[in-house]
């Protein structure tokens, strides 16, 4: 007859088994994620992460007669993990065709997913692809539902268009913009070169401990070409980590297209993200959209400052 384990040994074994279970994604949660997303994932017991990978058929096409293996990384994915401060943490990347980018960004923001990066992901000649990075925290159900909404938007776009649409500017080749109304909207004086309007607003930051600003590339800028009634706008809007989501929402609310979300430098303070955008319409209407995004950025910064003050701490204000 085996000897019974001492109480101390039982306690240790129980603690070890409990520790092994902490952070795992239970099977019932995995089944729920599969049901919500309509895809079956794979669980990594080492990292305690449940991951769904979705190869994109459109991404493998080089020419009409040639295809690539989706194992080159030509896919979308979503990963779910238990969290300590929230029920779950989510990271993901959506591989998108050009005409899917703006509607999917809007869907992600509406679903309270944080949009953190956007870059061209085309490797060979073929459909122009973009990689959209998203993160979020919340319940497993909320996160899976948000990701599913993005997938649904992709399908909606593809059902409405047989082939990916390509952006072609609808503006005259020769530019003759009247700068005065644009200066009035932005409350600053822009510059004119060859009939094209350009305005830039510097952002102060520290890089390697040294102060840098507009002339070192830390600036929001916009260029407007064409005529007063038919014009194209293109530029960068500098955002901080605190106001990036509000900036993206403001740009999309005014119909501006997002073409990239990226860093220009590493180690700067505060952390800066550059949102590249474009739009078409009247010159004044386009500049009003940029002003709307700038105002949303200021309001967001004021909100963060108010929260910090109420918490009993102080922090330097970001300035433009």
Integer count of domains: 2
Q: Roughly how many Å apart are the termini? A: 79 Å
Estimate the helix proportion, in percent: 25-40%
Q: Strand pairing plus helix content: what structural class?
A: alpha+beta
Indicate the radius of gyration in whole angstroms.
Answer: 24 Å
| Number of contiguous helices | 7
How would you state the average pLDDT, rounded? 83
Question: How would you describe the overall organization of this protein?
Answer:
- With 320 residues, the protein is α+β, with helices and mostly antiparallel strands.
- The protein has two domains: 25-160, 2-Layer Sandwich (Alpha-Beta Plaits); 179-310, Alpha-Beta Plaits.
- The protein contains seven helices and 16 strands.
- It has helices at residues 7-21, 27-37, 101-110, 140-160, 179-186, 244-253, 283-310, and strands at 42-44, 49-55, 61-63, 66-67, 75-82, 88-97, 114-120, 129-138, 191-193, 196-202, 205-207, 210-212, 219-226, 231-240, 257-262, 272-281.
- A six-stranded antiparallel sheet has the order 1-2-5-6-8-7. The protein has a six-stranded antiparallel sheet with strand order 9-10-13-14-16-15. Strands 3-4 form a two-stranded antiparallel sheet.
- The chain is globular, with a radius of gyration of 24 Å.
